[in-house]
Amino acid sequence: MEKVTDVVMVRGEAELFERTAHLFEAATEISCAARDLHTWSVAHPSAPEREHSVRGMTVRKVYQPGVLIDPALAEHLRMMAASGARIRITEREINETIILDRRIAIVAGDHVAGVRGYTVISSPALVQGIESLFEAAWHGATDLESYQARFTELGAREILEQLGSGCKDETAARALGVSLRTYRRRVAELMELLGASSRFQAGARAREAGLL
């Protein structure tokens, strides 16, 4: 481990857990931003521990839509929400971060030789800046239940597959068993959901978010 003032660099989740387990155990407020459920697996308790782990705590988590593709991961999110965690979904790029009690920030880095690096930060000024980025992501995201209901209602996954195939609207509508008018309306609504101004941009954002 290399330490520079209030910034500590660690390699791999084993070292991260060793260095920060006591911080997670003592925390009463946790804010988390991640692309999926794997980045911060050290912070995700097993099912029997989950309900107890968030009791009396303030837990906020922001994920990208890709977590909704795998039914098991989607169910995991619903269970966390049922246990008291507040969960939102965003299509925007996010900085994978955990903030503990507004005092400690843990930022995920790149993989090097198959091992991911993490930065543990306790400098108040740096933590405050990272917290501001999280708050912006949080306020721009959509509540899990609302997002998932809309995602399912639109048949978003199927529409994205049709858009990705490059087929004509008439062909896509027949494949989905809906009228051409309904298909085009759902495409427009999906673009709005993704914050896209064109079908091309919708596809690009869906790929960035792990939906394609």
Automatic annotation (TrEMBL):
<dbReference type="InterPro" id="IPR000792">
    <property type="entry name" value="Tscrpt_reg_LuxR_C"/>
</dbReference>
<dbReference type="InterPro" id="IPR051797">
    <property type="entry name" value="TrmB-like"/>
</dbReference>
<feature type="domain" description="HTH luxR-type">
    <location>
        <begin position="151"/>
        <end position="206"/>
    </location>
</feature>
<dbReference type="InterPro" id="IPR036388">
    <property type="entry name" value="WH-like_DNA-bd_sf"/>
</dbReference>
<dbReference type="InterPro" id="IPR016032">
    <property type="entry name" value="Sig_transdc_resp-reg_C-effctor"/>
</dbReference>
<protein>
    <submittedName>
        <fullName>LuxR family transcriptional regulator</fullName>
    </submittedName>
</protein>
